[in-house]
């Protein structure tokens, strides 16, 4: 507390006693002056005057004396008034200072009281934390459930207390419990323990929803390397800024599944399943939205299970990463159906492996200014990559360096505007097949390329009975198919049955080469000899038995 310098006390000139004293003194002095002063003044002013003459002027002289006394009185009065005003100001100053000192003392007192209350409250919260943690190790499941509720409520109280670090501590304890391994000799989570863990997941889910009273949307939810043989339902979760949900290297099996339907990732938020294993179970992220955030499944292993990303919307700055994913086993599927990749959004999936009857599907996907990358993907025997009814509008779909031993379906893909689908350096080997229509009856409509759309198959390699089927391909309004550097060997085949070109459409295969056992096949088994770039005949050309250097064979 600051102290003010004491004010110097002055004599109380304006007090009533002083005023009365001055009045009496004035009367006495005035009477003496009126009695003694006029006569000497007249003698001094009129030295030659007579007594009678001075008597006539005595009244005037008395008036002059009175006027002088009046002036003195006026001066004294003003001085007294100023003195009194100064005293009042000083008194007010003293009062103000006293009030300020009192306020400062009260503020300090309140601050000390609040500090003490805060210390007491934090001591109580820490006591509750210790009690809740102790309950987590109780034998009775009901006590462990009570501990989960207590920790969640404690986190809420810490949040109201303005301590986000302590909120994270409570979250870490709950997540640590969910990650804890099963006791030795027990391979699956018992039903009563499942109830405890489902309760813990529910506490997390409620606080990850947008608009929660005590939000965890910017907290770290760490379930890394957890064995999830129980349901993890986080529907409607919102992850903002530095918030994250991590299931890296988690194993989802048994009765477990992960559901994040309606997920929203904003402004740097992150959801990760890097290296997770989905063993004959389900991971669902239906209807989610990524806004300048990241959803990564890099290195995920789908072993007979399903990862469904239906209706996911990826906006500017958003990223879905599935590179190095491995999908294998009957019914194993990475399902990208109805995903919308908008301008600035991206799906990165380089190095994906589909084997042992696994599948990756992307039916009705829309690439509108965004980018889909499935480069270096490998589709093995009896496995499938189906990009059915994909629409590429001013965006890019890249499947370069694709190796196909199984089946790849690309129809009825539509490429509009300046959209591009690139399968450059693709290798089709060991009875593998790539088709744009009628593959295993998944769809009936062919690929269509409009406007300035481009379907690029540069440096395509077809070997060992491999087949590229572009049946019914429609190339309109300046669209183009690039087969530059095509190489066909050992009974490899390119089929263009019923392909049509109109309004400046073009198929180019400059520099193509083949062997006797590797022809390009048109309608009715007619062969075509590789040649320089092909231009349409008329406005609506169609590949047929005697067009474009056909050899009836």
List the helices and strands and how they pair.
Layout: H1 16-36, H2 38-45, H3 51-136, H4 141-160, H5 164-179, H6 191-208, E1 220-222, E2 227-228, E3 231-233, E4 238-240, E5 244-246, E6 251-252, E7 257-259, E8 264-266, E9 270-272, E10 277-279, E11 282-284, E12 289-291, E13 294-296, E14 301-303, E15 306-308, E16 313-314, E17 319-321, E18 326-328, E19 333-335, E20 340-342, E21 346-348, E22 353-355, E23 359-361, E24 366-368, E25 371-373, E26 378-379, E27 384-386, E28 391-393, E29 396-398, E30 403-404, E31 407-409, E32 414-416, E33 420-422, E34 427-428, E35 433-435, E36 448-449, E37 454-456, E38 461-462, E39 467-469, E40 474-476, E41 480-482, E42 487-488, E43 493-495, E44 500-502, E45 506-508, E46 513-514, E47 520-521, E48 527-528, E49 540-542, E50 550-551
Parallel strand pairs: 1-5, 2-6, 3-7, 4-8, 5-9, 6-10, 7-11, 8-12, 9-13, 10-14, 11-15, 12-16, 13-17, 14-18, 15-19, 16-20, 17-21, 18-22, 19-23, 20-24, 21-25, 22-26, 23-27, 24-28, 25-29, 26-30, 27-31, 28-32, 29-33, 30-34, 31-35, 32-36, 33-37, 34-38, 35-39, 36-40, 37-41, 38-42, 39-43, 40-44, ...
Antiparallel strand pairs: 44-49, 47-48, 48-50
